[in-house]
Amino acid sequence: MVRKPTSKESARKPNMREAILAAAEELFATNGFNAVSVRDIAQAAGANPGSVTYHFKTKDGLLLEIYRRHCGPMNLRRSELLAAARRVRDLQDRLEAVVRAYVVPAFTSGSDLAGGGARFTRLRAVMSAEGNEVARKIIAQTFDDTSHAFIDAIHESLPHIPRTDIVWRSHFLLGALYYSLVTPERVSRLSRGEADGGDAANAIEQLVQATVAAFQAPALDQAAPARRRPVVSSKT
Amino acid sequence: MVRKPTSKESARKPNMREAILAAAEELFATNGFNAVSVRDIAQAAGANPGSVTYHFKTKDGLLLEIYRRHCGPMNLRRSELLAAARRVRDLQDRLEAVVRAYVVPAFTSGSDLAGGGARFTRLRAVMSAEGNEVARKIIAQTFDDTSHAFIDAIHESLPHIPRTDIVWRSHFLLGALYYSLVTPERVSRLSRGEADGGDAANAIEQLVQATVAAFQAPALDQAAPARRRPVVSSKT
DNA sequence: ATGTGATTTGTACTATCGTACAAAAGATCA
DNA sequence: TGATCTTTTGTACGATAGTACAAATCACAT
């Protein structure tokens, strides 16, 4: 209803709608949903507050549209990479390829979408931490299929590990992934400048390397069969 | 100035101040800082909005006091456990003990503080995601020493791994830890009910097991010396 | 050029926010 | 009991939130 596909893009500014989406994405991803006002977004996009209402009706609607824009392409990319990874013969190589297929699209731009997947992934991390309702619904119904596909693929490479353990470890992977995008400066700080937390390529390599090893850890039940648990119990 | 240490605790309700702190902690940890109003907190604590201002002056002051309450004890507990872990002879056992010393206090109650460290850790996760300023300052100056101590201890157990890699992997550990507390229900969902994401003891075991393996992964530089990187490059 | 529909602007409304402050209530001890 | 200090209550104020809506402005087909 909103858009008339004429030869040229209409509107005074070249696609104000996109500018608003980009500004909102950036602000939400760095400050959370509730800390950012519609007026903040409008100002960052060089738009009028009323424009936001016009294009997206409500603030929730704006967030919803951001998700709609990214979920499809990112899942598509992941599916392609996962399919390719599944064809890798060597089991060890395949595991790494599968992990990489999960991680790479989250860090890098989803081909056509401006600004890249990193910003969107960070947004998802923040919304998940805030317990945002709109995000929760979309996420569960959009990403769970993909998550299951990855879990299955990993399970194929590690048939001796119980599925439960795979789920836990892939959960840890997502947490690590999120956190790397949320506070990259912490890596720079703790490494005393020797590492750049914001360097996506490096973060990916580190994450893939660590995660592959984590997946390959022995299963919990059969872990360290004849060794005592050291030092502390886990309940207070 | 505020408190007079008489024989009995004063105030109509048995320690309204504590009730407000507990309510704020819970609400902040589940909804974020900006989504929770002072009135919400007061209502949850069975108090009057004015009481919050009286005890903590501002909303930021309330958050600050929550941090003050927990940072000391949790760091103390971690130091104790870390010291004990350092005394473990076997190098593999020591690594596990060190990781456990880092993880356990974050999941379980800090001995004397009601409600436990899990709630506070979740709060930290959420504040970090929201980029909260008050939290950022406190965190950097309170936890970085502890983080360095742990990184050093882990490096001792794995002298052949570059410090940079250890930093990255401990960053992943913290991310995984945070995420486990932020969305435990995702684990239950993805495991189709076979695992309980909210079971702290189980989460700890899974996290420790996976993390120890991640730390033990070969260093990045020397990783897979004669093998091609499979399938995808890391930049778009 | 002019009318028409899409977009942008400006502004206003109501609700709620954090905070301040005076009055009430409770506790403590001479 | 009455004086004094601490705590709680009730209320109010200015700022800002999300959203609605009419007027102004634009792009474009005729």
What are the defining features of this structure?
236 residues, DNA-binding, homodimer, Tetracycline Repressor, domain 2, 2 domains, Arc Repressor Mutant, subunit A, 10 helices, disordered N terminus, 0% strand, mainly alpha
Task: Offer a quick outline of the entry.
Chain A is mostly helical and 236 residues long. Chain A has two domains: 15-57, Arc Repressor Mutant, subunit A, CATH 1.10.10.60; 70-216, Tetracycline Repressor, domain 2, CATH 1.10.357.10.
CATH class descriptor of the largest domain in chain A: Mainly Alpha
Radius of gyration of chain A: 21 Å
Helix content of chain A: 55-70%
SS strand fraction of chain A: under 5%
**Total beta strands of chain A:** 0
Task: Give the biggest sheet of chain A.
Answer: none
Question: What is the N-to-C succession of helices and strands of chain A?
Answer: HHHHHHHHHH
Mean pLDDT of chain A: 88
CATH superfamily of the largest domain in chain A: Tetracycline Repressor, domain 2
What is the CATH topology of the largest domain in chain A? Tetracycline Repressor, domain 2
Residue ranges of chain A: pLDDT <50 for 5 or more in a row?
A: 1-12, 223-236
Describe the structure in your own words.
- Two copies of one chain form a homodimer.
- By secondary structure, chain A is mostly helical.
- Chain A has two domains: 15-57, Homeodomain-like (Arc Repressor Mutant, subunit A), CATH 1.10.10; 70-216, Tetracycline Repressor, domain 2.
- Chain A contains ten helices and no strands.
- Chain A has helices at residues 16-31, 38-45, 49-56, 59-86, 91-107, 117-130, 133-157, 163-182, 184-190, 200-215.
- In chain A, α1 crosses α6, α3 (49-56) crosses α4 and α5 (91-107) packs across α10.
- The longest helix of chain A is centred in the first third of the chain and has 28 residues, at 59-86.
- The termini of chain A are far apart.
- Chains A and B meet through α4, α5, α6, α7 and α8 of A and α4, α5, α6, α7 and α8 of B.
- Chain A binds a DNA duplex (30 and 30 nucleotides) through residues 2-4, 6-8, 10-13, 16, 37-39, 47-55, 57-59.
